[in-house]
Amino acid sequence: MQRKRKSRVLMQVAMVVLLLLGFVALAPAGEVQPGDVIDKSNADKAKDYFPPHFMRWITDGWELESPVTVHVVAPVPNPPPKNYMEESKKNATRVTLLPDGRLEGYVAGLPFPDPQEPNKALKIMWNSYYRWRGDDFTYPGGFLVPGKRKNGQLSIGKADIHFLRFTGRTDVDPKPEIANPHGLEWAMTLDSLSPPEWKGMVTLIWRYTDPTKPDDMWTYLPTMRRTLRMISRERSNPVRGTTSTWDDYYGFDGKLMEFDYKLLGEQKILAIMNQSTLDVDGHHPILSDNYEIRDAYLVEITPKDPRYPEKFRHVWVIKESYWVVYSETFDKNGQFWKGCMNTFHRFDLPDGDHGPFNTGNSITDFKTGTWVGNFIRNLNLNNSKLTPAAFEPGSLNATGM
Amino acid sequence: MRRLRSTAICSLCFCLLALGWILVGFPGPSFAVQLSENTELSGFLRNNTGIFTGNQDFTENNDKLATCRNWVRLKLDTTLDPAFSFRLVTQGIYEPKYRIEEGSTANWNEYDELDVREVFFTWKPTSSNIIRVGRQIVTWGESLAFRVGDVINPQDARFAFSFANLEDTRIPQWMARGVHHLTGIRSSFEWIVNPPITQDKYRVDTIFAEPTSAYATTTGWKPGWRFAIYPETRLEYPYSVTPSGYADGVIVGPSLARSFAYYNPLPFIPGFPAGYYPVDIPSLTYKYPENNDVRYGFRTSTTMSGYNFGVFFWHTQEYTPLLERSTTTHGTTDLGLAILGVPGLWVVPNREYYAIFPDVNILGAYVNKEMPLGVLRGEFTYRPRRSYNTLDPSDEDALVKRDNIQYLIAWDIQTMCRPLTETGTVDINLEYHGSWVLGDTDYLNVAGYLTPIRREDHEFLLNLGTSFDYNRYSVGITVIYNTQDHGAVMPSVKFVPDFMNKAFSFELKYINIFGDSDYEGLGLFRQKDMVVLTSQWSF
Q1: Taking the CA atoms of chain B, what radius of gyration do you get in angstroms?
Q2: Does domain A82-399 sit in CATH 2.50.20.10?
Q3: CB within 8 Å: B144 and A224
Q4: Residue ranges for chain B with pLDDT beneath 50
Q5: By CA distance, what is A242's nearest residue in B?
């Protein structure tokens, strides 16, 4: 009897141990704390706080660059501005997800301030699509666009962006919309300043409020002194001689209705949400900087178009502001192909508020061992004085340099 | 051969010196030079070296150096304040004396220049209004290769051959130009006022200035310029307007087809073909546009439902002159006496001809739209009552008016071709360009020549290209085909090394020209096949 009781106790203990072991296996490898410094000597500690590909940046820099050192610091909130969040709150009762995936009743802010099932993944991605990024911005002096291959330099470019949001405006008058006969959600120009082969090229992109409508795109070519209508539907085509596609920017910049979404889970991740300095030389795709723990959604994105060159993409969307902080792209065979990392900074706004803005972006093609980055050093946010006239195709010939 | 080598060595030395200067002056990544916070200097050094692949039979030697053109272009941009900016573009071009042109009347520094190419102020009083005043280039239209709506800047024929891009062939013009955005109606309005202030060197039209056309003959009178038309049998009976031999003392002006008796033969001298009978002895006077012949026009741009479209109007003068036969004569010439020694048999008047630049109004429209399978582009121009030369002997002034229409339909496709290239798109451009003369086209001729102007002309362009290895290598081919069975095939390879931030580029292009007709279109140049290397450093 005693023997029987003893074996039962042993079994219970074993079960508890197994259960504990299971928990240990499922839980983060080590509890990362503010003050930790993660490098290749203790990289395992952080392996559950990063996308799988990122760990090799810490262990050997993918043999592309020097290994990265992660300084874990206490999180400093970097949420969107109050005006935007107030509009977001209103959407709880204002916005409806239609059966075809479009939104009804959306004006501004996050369409789904508290995304829930059904279609939670799609709601998260709608939030990411309408994430706060100001009503207008430029990068005075241009931003750096470095590119490197495994054994050498590709180029160091400079570019500027002029961005104007026509709808969903929360910060700058007129709100929430600029009179807009074209039906645009936003428009931007990408002005190449260097290298010489791209210098003077200006690309104008129109994004319509109708999510089913393809973008329109024009490019002013200084070598021809002519504005050409561009093909904008092929967003999976490489941009200017890199493997980065239009859809790759910001981790994911695709037309939302052209993909299916699946929520794979939630995860605590380490990310640069308050980049310590903008004075980076741009010669490394991943910054050794201060990383903070954030809650993120992990979403799998699958293209509907069978011609699309990816099988699927994983994106990590932070709950605080719905920016994509990391993405991983897999080719048609399901092989890991590209990785993207975004960094952020908390910017002061002219109205006294603050907002999170993307300051660094790098896309690495691990098949060819090449990366292209975008690093801003200066930002003119919500104060650019841009007007719709600057985004007319007819203005490119007149203003193009 | 020895000369070619020495010319090549000279060019090489020039390039090495230039390269040394570059490396000393610009050791860092290739960004434009920031002279101050608001002033930037950029530009390029370029060399075109081309070799003819075939023999040039009508020259005095076997030299094959087709071109060795060296360019330097500097561009200064300065922003004086947010509303006011200034640009200055200067250009220097040097070409060596070409041995292939020895013995011709070619001026060896014909192509050299040191010029202020563009200089203008831009004023933006408001974000919707831009005014630009100065010497500038304006490109209208949708075509990549043909000049349908691209009507503002005349073409500099010195640089019109295939290795120069369209941009380099445009002659900048002094003008005032405004662009006004009317965003409420999704449109913009552009206007231009262009007084015909043209430098003298641009006033010589090569049709009449090029000595080859007039003098190069199979009998070895004088060799041609290197880009002269070939074969020069064009200059012999029955095609020529210039006799292959004539007596000293007879004044014969430039090739003026109308001065010969093709359509009103006077076969009173047995054995002489009709084309050798001058009906008058021409003298030629250029009547350039006067200062009050202001060119002007406007263009609209509207974007609606994915279509970008507009209309335009341009009042100008023909940039290539026509020949007006005047009623003014200055005595007579006794050709019978001069040629045959028989006085009074063949007496013709000494007639004054004018090279004129008639007014022309160009009305046009254009549209572009992205479609599911690519971008559609189209443009159309209508020139009512355009002036043409005629060989109709009953027409006194040799000028008639006809309506002319031109149009373009183009299709652009851009796609990936993985795994052929991971970093470049495959770009395909297809263009069809048509031209029609409305009404009777009998007797219409290219000014000065017997070459007929056809009622209709159709040509096609195919561009196919892609790049590899992060734009390090680009390959492309351009095919131009005219339904009169002439055209060109131009494959090219371009290399842009990573070195110095991709500031250098080297493009090797083969230009093959074909044509059934020796007297029309690209058939004129069908023996001018060449290989051209274009090397450029930009900053």
Answers
A1: 26
A2: yes
A3: yes
A4: 1, 4, 17, 21-30, 204-223, 230-254
A5: B423
